[in-house]
Amino acid sequence: MQEILQNQPDPEQRKPLPLNILLGALVVIAIALAFWFAFKSPQGSSSRNALSNMSVPMSTAEQAYAKSIQIENIALSRAENFIHQEVTILNADAVNAGPQNVAGLAVTVEFFDDLHQVVLRESRSVLASPATLAPGQRRSFTVSFDRVPASWNLQQPSVRVTYLQLVTLK
Question: What's the pTM value of the predicted model, to 2 decimals?
Answer without folding.
Answer: 0.64
